Every structure is written in structure tokens, then in C-alpha cells.
């Protein structure tokens, strides 16, 4: 999945780590935006073998965008702000 | 008196406004970092678009709700980033999760304004990266300035289908198509009875006209067949059948889909408010009177969580629920305001009923859903597995209703607790059993409303 | 109302005990009618933790538990499904010296009933179960025990019973029952049934049935507070409990961890039950003390159901003290799930043969009739 930054993107750049790789994002991005507007492609794999997932509702309800933030545990990427230096991996 | 208000969307804002006017300082919480609800959600700090760009024709209302919200925050015990994960009616306790800690708050009366989320009818491929709800597609744009893909198809029915597509087009996104499962004739028939809110109707027609004028493929009466693609690369096409019966493929890398919205009523359910099936809305709705009173003393409901009415109705029902609470508590009320709002709500209800008829939930698609379709995306339960649970030949006999089917198949047992798949699951089961969906029942609400981290439990002296 | 429908045996209550009795009776050719107020397995039988455990049981229950164990292993041939029964072992833990002493004392009881247990402590315990937290001092492991999916057992027993010819009626609450000549008449809102034998497997509501026959018992509703986590990688094989029983947990191969502990609230008159948030939180904390890796995991659902609790925490199993032809098996006090398959076999023998090989000493309803027989709660 590739989010496309369309409007309101003139925000300071920040960096974070996703799956061991340094990635660029913008201040104010959610983790979902930061990962999927970059090269992330998807956020998690279904526990039951049916493939990658990249969220669905984007409003904190469906729970299908969970990623793991180092020091914090699992979070919903769609409602968690990406902050500089965050270390994130797929759940 | 201790009053709790859950939710700071249009309903919660107008409820708290009335409470504060009467001298009450409520506990006021919202799961999001800010109020506004989904409809008037504000982007984080650093975003510069104005209200006109964010909310279009609703900009004036959005600004008014935001201004009231900001003015009220210091006058209430305002707790953003706070999830209400359970509620007890006896004793009256609201259980919250904030900053990773579980807390309990006693209350004498509560107004629950828990909002709504998209109604979904799964189809093969809907779990692929690149597929979101219509609401999700809209939030990506509104709150993050992003499109959900380079070339986005919109599928479903209802006002949000057209609004989201229009907003994408206006923001410069590539809209691949707008595919409406409702035939034009059905809409025309239902909308003919819509004199009650010409402004809303005019807005809808405006969006459709602008999309068509931009040369975007707009089709009505379509049958969605599958979303194609693969897990690693995401969506590549949408496979559908047009109203003449011809199979077609649409190249796209994202799909926003949804068929109207349904109340988020888990908290009301956990409080013990009776829930009934509303055949016109085609939704399960909590029982409440025109003022938002439930059969449970001290529990009031407002906004879309009390039955779908949209943002304008949410503002009115929020104020009414607060007035009902104040009246029941013997506090100062505003009878004239209540009378005026009740009149407007009655007119709005007629308009809403016409909208519900114009944009029906596509229950007929459930019967045709291929067996291999993942129905419950949390637990990866397929439509075929659910159907098997409805046959007497299975090892556990036939499930006659949806909670027994859940017990057998784990459908709706995942992290989202069936809020995404529950309606469609009931339709699949109803179609298989040849019974009405109201008889099939609904997935019971179970705490926590959303996942509760074990580390949130406070260490107590009796923990050992 | 028309003449009552005739049967050989009537059963009130479609939990694990009632459904398994219907199965065994029908297999022996008896005409059986079972009446269930809701759907089979709706209350304690379907909402329980799913433990299939012999370890820790009272000596009075152990003979039934031993017999049930043999049946659990044969479930696929009996009813065509294993109900997700897995023999993972049951690990009962001690968090202080007193709890460890309790585990040690039970080793003798188990040995005298042929139940093999293994006592572990220190590095040996941690080597074997590396996910245990530092709060755990010792453990007693019962390799034959395990767990199963409680949502499946009663419906699967019911289906097999129907296939064998039994009549199981759901949404058929019993409104009245009474002796009638040398048998019994049982009524629902719309129908009447008559049979020479009556089985009371009505869970908490079994107390009401017993009272109809002049033998009331001090039964209370028991509403276990249950929850389940999101799926996490499978690591905790055994079914885990603690001395004293204030928390218990097991992980299923799909990854979810089921946690129980404490009591919710319920109203048997509706019937309705629900867990309590405060109790859920306490059990979460206790579970994380046993298995610290659970800290970062989320609970996604909680539930309860209604069982019957007797003052001595032992079920009522055996012939009525007042009425020949009536047999009880109710008030399982949170222990019924594992026993269910054997209870059906025992009730079948009592109803058709008038006797059973399985010792039922200490479980008779008569213990509540004589004032001195009542064990304080």
C-alpha cells in the first residue's frame, strides 16, 4: 500500500526506524502514514497465515494496523503519532 | 452531581455545552487526542489547511463545533486520549484507559456519544493492503493530507461514497471510479420523498455532478466481485459487474469501501441498554426516547451511537440528552430550546428515513459471497466456515443464531470484536438459514470495548 | 393440554452432564427427552474456562474425574470430534511456602487414586517452563491433564445424542415437574412429558428442581470471571493454575491466552451474567505475575456464565433422597466441564440399572438433609 502525500505536507522532516531501516516522515504523521507513505508497504501479517495487512478503518476501531513500538509495545499505527527516533516493527 | 460524557464529537460538544451552562462540570473524555469526532476531526499541530479546505460545505459548522469545544475544555474535566472500555450501571462506574493505565470513575449520570463506523460488506480481497473503509479514506485525507493510493476506486453506497470521492478529486488525487451498488432508479424513488432537507440533497447532487463533469467513471447498480492484488504489493484491480451484467476490471491501487454507517453501541450494550433492530436503518440501535433517555436511570445516549442521524442531528441530540439529564436531576433546563430542537429532529428523522431507503445495506451480496471470502478479518474466518456452522451435518450441529455461530467458528472473536464483520456475518448466516437478519441476532457486546493491555492493570495490594 | 408425550427418561438441563446423559441413554436404546431452557451449553458448560483437569480435585470427585479422563481421550470415536481437547498437562503453581505445602500434601491424595504428578521447583521448574516469572516458587505437573474448547462440547454431545435417537428440545424451559404415579410429569409452556425416570442436570437451577421434590439445598450462583487475550506466539503448553485458585490460564495453539480468576455478577432469573472490570483487572495482574511475558499483551474479550456453587464446593451427584427414580447431577461448583462426559455415563447406569460402578460417596444430596451433614462454606 502506498499512501500519497497530497496536501498539507510542508511540515518539518523527522526520522524513525521501521523494521531496522531508517525512514523519513513528517512531524504530525501517524505511524500508519509514516510507514505507508514511505516504502513500508504493509504494517503486519495476519496471525492466521492469510497475508499482510495495512489497516482498514484508520480510526482506531478495526485493530488491523497494530505495530510494535520499542519501549511501548503494540500500538495502533493509525492513531499513534510518529515521533523522531521511534523504533517500530511489524506486529 | 457527577456527570460523565463519553465522546467529544458534535453530540458530546453540544451535550457538555448544555451541562456547563447549567453549572455542571462533567468528566469529559474522548479516545482521540482532540475532540471534533470523526466528522470534524482536526489534523495535528503543524497542518495549515483551513476549515474550508478540510470540511468543504460543512466548514461553518465545523468551526462552530471547534470553537465551542475549545471554550468548554477548561470548564470540564477534559480527558483526551482516554478510552472508555467498560461501564457498569450498578454501581455506576466508568472504566477508562488513559496513558496505559486503567482507572475507574464513579458517576451519577452519563451521556454516551460513541459515534459510528462504516458498515462493511466483505468481498474477496478486502483484507489486502490498500483497501480501507470510506471513512478511513476520508480521514487519511482530512487528518493526514494523504490519499490511500495513487489511483483510488470508491465502492459502496450512501452520501459518504460521493463525498469522499469528491474530496479526493478536489485535493488532486486520481479517482479511478465511483461504483455505487444502488441502482439509480431505487435512489430516485426514495429521494423523491425528500423535501425535508433540500440543502443536504443539493449537496449530494452537486458532488455527483462534479465527479461526472471531471470525466470520472461513475456507475450505479454495480455488483462488486473481488479486489485483486497480492499481499506484498497490495491492490492491483477491482473486479465488478455493471448494471447490464457485463464483467469489468478497473485498474487501481487502492479501494475505499463502505455502505453507510452503524452505531458504535458497545458501551451502551455493556451498560445494559436494550438493543433492538431498526428495519429502516437496517441497524441494531440502543433503546432511547426522543430526548436520549434509556430505560436505565442515569444513562443517556446522543449522536450516531444512539442511532444514525448524521452530524447535524448529533449536535441536536447531544443538547437534548443533556437537557433530559438536567431535567431528571432537577437542575435548570431550557424548555424552549428543547422544544425547538425536538421539532427539528422530527423533520430530520423523515429525511433520514428517505436516505436509508435510498442507500440500503447490500444484504443481497451476502448470499452470493464466495465461500473462500475472509469474512472476519481478525480471526481469518471465511464465509464458507460460517455457512458450515449453520448446517446440521457439522460436528456440533447447526448454529441457529449469530452468537452460537461465533462460538463454533470464532467469527467476531478477534481484536475488533465483530464491529467490522458482525453485520455481514449475520447476513451470511441469515441467507444460509433462510431467515430474517433480525432473528439471527447480533454479536453481544463484551468488555473491553477495545483491547486492554495487561500492563494497564494497576498493581494492587491484593495482586498476589 | 393434550396427553403427555411418553419417554423412558426425562432430563432437565442441556449442559455437558445432561447432553452426555442423553447420549449414553439413547445409545442403550432408551427413549430420552432432554429439555433445555436456552441453547444447549449456554451457561457454565459453554462459558467455563475449558480446563480438563484431575489434579487438585477433592478425593470425592477423583473417581469420576478418572472415568471422565478415559472418555475425553475417546471423544472422537464417541462423538466425532475432539472438541479441541489437548493433553498438555496441568501445572499447578505455588507462590509462597504455604501454597507449596498444599501442592506437596496433594501428592499423596493423587498417588492413592493412581494420578501421576511431578513436583518441580527451583532451576528444574524454570528449565522446564522458562516463561514462568520469579514470583513462582514451585509447581506440580499432571501430565495427563489438559484443556478443551467449552463452546463445542455440549453442542457436540447434543448432536451425537440426537443422532443416537434422543430428543433434545431447546428454548424449552421447564415450568413445573412433579411425581406422577410411579414416574414423573414435566411441563414446559407448551408441552407435557411423562417418564419413569427423571434426571436433574440443571446446573444452578438444579437447586430449584431438587426443591420441587422436597430436598432444597444451599446452592448459590457461581459466575467465573473469564477473559482472553489477543493471539501471541504459542509458548505456554500446559494448562496453568495456582494453589488457592485465584488465577488460572492456558494458551491455545492459535495463540490466544484464556485467563480466569474471581467472580463476575449474574442474575439466574433472567438468566444473565457478566464479568466485572475490577475483577478482570485483578486477574490480569495475577496472570502477569505468573507469566511476565503477558505484560505487553492485550485482553480482547471477557465473559461469564452461571454455574451452581455448593457450600462444600462439591457437586450433588446420585439418587434423590426423597423420590425414587429421580437422579441428580448439578451444582458442579466450577468443576463440571471435565466431569461432564463421565456424569452422563453414570446417570445412564443409575437410570437404567439402578447402580453404578463409580463411587459417589460424599456427593449425595443427603449430605444437605441432616443438619450435621452440612459442611461450612
Q: Would you mind describing this structure in some detail?
A:
Chain C: One of its GO terms (molecular function) is oxidoreductase activity. Chain C: Keywords: Oxidoreductase. Chain C: Residues 8-350 form the FAD dependent oxidoreductase domain. The complex is a heterotrimer of chains A (91), B (464) and C (377). With 91 residues, chain A is mainly beta. Helix content of chain A is 7%, strand content 33%. Chain A contains 1 helix and 8 strands. In chain A, a hairpin with a 6-residue loop joins β4 and β5. The longest helix of chain A has 6 residues, at 31-36. Chain B is α/β, with parallel strands linked by helices and 464 residues long. Chain B has 3 domains: 3-117 and 262-356, FAD/NAD(P)-binding domain (3-Layer(bba) Sandwich), CATH 3.50.50.60; 120-259, FAD/NAD(P)-binding domain, CATH 3.50.50.60; 364-440, no CATH class. Chain B is 35% helix and 23% strand. Chain B contains 15 helices and 24 strands. Chain B has helices at residues 10-21, 51-55, 59-72, 134-144, 159-171, 184-191, 198-213, 266-271, 311-328, 335-358, 364-368, 383-389, 402-409, 422-433, 437-440; strands at residues 3-6, 27-29, 77-79, 82-89, 92-98, 101-106, 109-112, 116-118, 131-133, 146-147, 151-157, 174-180, 217-220, 223-230, 234-241, 247-251, 254-259, 261-263, 275-278, 283-286, 299-301, 374-376, 381-382, 452-453. In chain B, the strands form 7 sheets. Chain B has a 5-stranded parallel sheet with strand order 3-2-1-7-21. In chain B, strands 9-17-11-12-13 form a 5-stranded parallel sheet. In chain B, α5 (159-171) links the parallel β11 (151-157) and β12. The longest helix of chain B is centred in the C-terminal third of the chain and has 24 residues, at 335-358. By secondary structure, chain C is α/β, with parallel strands linked by helices. Chain C has 2 domains: 5-50 and 151-218 and 311-373, FAD/NAD(P)-binding domain (3-Layer(bba) Sandwich); 90-143 and 224-304, D-Amino Acid Oxidase, subunit A, domain 2 (D-Amino Acid Oxidase, Chain A, domain 2). Chain C has helices at residues 16-27, 44-47, 62-73, 75-79, 97-112, 122-128, 150-163, 206-212, 277-290, 336-353; strands spanning 5-6, 9-12, 32-35, 51-52, 90-94, 118-121, 138-142, 146-147, 167-169, 174-180, 183-188, 192-195, 197-200, 220-222, 224-229, 239-242, 248-251, 257-263, 265-267, 272-274, 298-303, 307-309, 316-319, 326-330. In chain C, β2 (9-12), α1 (16-27) and β3 (32-35) form a beta-alpha-beta unit. In chain C, α1 (16-27) packs parallel to α7, α1 (16-27) runs parallel beside α10 (336-353) and α3 (62-73) packs across α10.
